[in-house]
Specification:
By secondary structure, this protein is of the alpha/beta class. It contains six helices and four strands, in the order αβααβαβααβ. The radius of gyration is 15 Å and the shape is globular. The strands form two sheets. It has a two-stranded parallel sheet with strand order 1-2. Strands 3-4 form a two-stranded parallel sheet. Helix 5 packs antiparallel against helix 6. The two termini are 25 Å apart. The chain has a single domain, classed as P-loop containing nucleotide triphosphate hydrolases (Rossmann fold, 3-Layer(aba) Sandwich).
């Protein structure tokens, strides 16, 4: 999965999970550790990422299909995970949730922090996440672009 906060990644990833894929999520792992605000401390984020990477490799070795419910906000991060999976013969497909800025920010502003897929973000941080996002390009490898519906003009801001 690939997209900024509010793009619909977790919703889409849960659909894939219901279809039989294993979903790995930073947000879920952080939530289980009691983290309720973003961003987490760098050392904890690195620890969680190391565990998720190890779990990913275990699942791939076992022949499981995995959806990574991460933002993959930078090409560097996407390339890093491609390199991680290359020795296993896996060429990952990037599923990019193409969502306009206003819709993503509207969705984030509606969050209440009630569960792992509902982290409330300060509006400035949410805007930084959206504005700093580097959309994937076809030259990165297999890419599916999912266009998410725009927010209704009557939707709460």
């Amino acid at each position: 999965m690939c997209g900024p906060a509010g793009s619909g990644k977790s919703t889409y990833a849960r659909e894939l999970e219901r279809a039989g894929m294993v979903r790995l999520s930073f947000d879920v792992e952080l939530w289980h550790r009691g983290v309720r605000t973003m961003p987490p401390p760098d050392d904890l984020r690195a620890e969680v990422e190391a565990q998720l990477r190890a779990r990913l490799l275990e699942l791939v070795a076992a022949g499981r299909d995995v959806v990574l419910d991460f933002s993959f906000w930078s090409r560097r991060m996407r390339d890093d995970y491609r390199a991680l999976l290359a020795p296993a013969g896996v060429v990952p497909e990037t599923v990019y949730l193409a969502t306009d800025r206003d819709t993503a920010l509207s969705r984030v502003s509606a969050r209440t922090g009630s569960h792992a897929d509902d982290y409330a973000l300060h509006p400035d941080l949410a805007a930084q996440y959206v504005e700093g996002f580097e959309p994937p390009t076809p030259d990165e490898g297999p890419l599916e672009v999912v266009r998410t519906p725009q927010a209704s003009p009557d939707a709460p801001a």
